[in-house]
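#lab-general

N.A. 3:47 PM
ok so I finally got the sequence cleaned up, no stray characters, all 257 residues accounted for. can someone with queue access submit it? mine expired

B.Y. 3:52 PM
send it over

N.A. 3:53 PM
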Amino acid sequence: MIDKQWDSAAHAVSDIPDGASLAVGGFGLSGNPIALIEALLEQGTKDLSVVSNNCGVDDWGLGVLLGAQRIRKMTSSYVGENKEFERQFLSGELELELTPQGTLAEKLRAGGSGIAAFYTQTGVGTQVAEGGLPRRYNADGTIAVASPVKDVRTFEVDGSPADFVLEEAITTDFSLVHASRGDRHGNLVFNKAARNFNPLAAMAGRICIAQVEQLVEPGDLDPDSIHLPGVFVHRIVEVGTDIPKRIERRTVAVEGA
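B.Y. 4:20 PM
back already:
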């Protein structure tokens, strides 16, 4: 029997070195592996290259690592909700590889599936394909690093020619994800919207570390209900069902309106 349970988040992330690359699950603040992120913050790991849909908010999610200036580069599809993200990028402190959301998802899935690259129509005719998209600024606002030109090929689709841009897969040294339930073999079940980028991020990491709210025995999970098989997960930590969960914006109706 392969028991992948670790005793704490701090222990599970203890060998993540400075300069490591990470794929991190979550969409907005839904499904953020906050216990693992905070453990990484506590141990002082720095110069990280992080792949995630976004970077949390100023005081939550990946935003806590960003605020402590532990992140060197972000690969993301969305940069809103975080003023410090904007400030670091525009001041030249942070490198950003801005990637269309669906393309980012497929780059992670491809990396986890052993697919080196793929062609997509997303980004054709824009700086995504043609290059020149700022990745890092100089302090004076000029562009220090720009995105490269990507290969574009024409394929026949439904009898008509169409252009496609080549996108390379993403793999990372580690991945950090959050799941609702998991067993000691690493099989994971995600709750509703928290499924988002978590399975894809898990697949892309050479070592996947999962925090779960509830850890059960092998065989307790219905095989048809498992969203990610344990073959992709290497370490699992139980964090409890009362772990804090934040949302970016709470919207409520005005009584009587």
